[in-house]
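Format notes (please read before filing issues)

Several people have asked whether sequences and structure tokens are stored in separate files. They are not. Every record keeps both together, in the order shown below: the sequence lines, then the token lines. Line labels are part of the format and must not be stripped during preprocessing.
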Amino acid sequence: MDEPLDGPPRLPGYSLRQLLYFVTAAESGTLSEAAARLHISQSAVSLAISELERALKVQLCVRRKAHGITLTPAGKQALREMRALLRQAEDLAADVSGTQEGLSGRLSVGCYVTLAPTVLPPLLQGFSALHPALTIDFEEGTGDHLQRRLLDGDLDVAVLYDTDVLPEMDRALLSTMRPHILLPAGHPLADEPVVALHDLAAEPMVLLDAPPSSHHTLLLCQSAGVTPVVRHRTRNFEMARALVGRGLGYAILVQRPANDRTYEGLPVVHKEIAELPEATVSVLLCWPRQVARTRRASEFVRFCLQSPTTSEPPAL
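Then the structure lines:
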């Protein structure tokens, strides 16, 4: 049985509506855009923010005509906490209305850019089928960008490689993958079952320069005792494959698409790395440790851990 409160609860001097108006304005960047999203007048948004600032006794933003709003340091911190409060309030409404069977509201999911095309679609499809009233937003990006978004409260969870993950993150293991060498089909070593990085040391490398991939790739080379000759850098996974397909270098990648051709239709081959036969990379589902997960996020984590779609595809 819950312990009784020592005294009557004290109501805060602000309302959830004021929090919603401030969060919408902060995300929109301007009061006019926030008013349009909320279907209210701009003066109503401005008044709500002013009342919220008076209640909290702190300036949350600087409002400049024709320049939108700029959050103060206190406003940036408050924004994260207000997002969490609004999500908890949404959870409460769903719990007490007897809709536990199906989730509603909004879930924001991030995914590392190279994992997104193969990992996200089956997860989004499967979870949406279970909870058709739920709106799922997703965002692709690099590991450092997605972790900032998690800490800022913009994302509920994110799928990341287990590289350079911040200590502020809680995590669950989804799967493991093996890094491999990508070669053009006409490469002299294309028919070899396993390829050594030492045999490619003098050849140009195409580096996928989307953190943390670039850091991870260079660490793999260092552990194999090889200093790569990086000729081309790209933040785009398919661009890296396209350059390899054109014979402009080799690449070290983790994700393995089911299609062994580039967008141009040029064939490429995947080869195990001779010096690193046991190397693996973990794929994680992460969320901020200091933020209580909503029921939507908790159910999504549970679904992902039980889903077979997060396992590594067979080697090509």
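For reference, the curators noted about this record: The chain has nine helices and 13 strands. The first strand starts at residue 61 and ends at 64.
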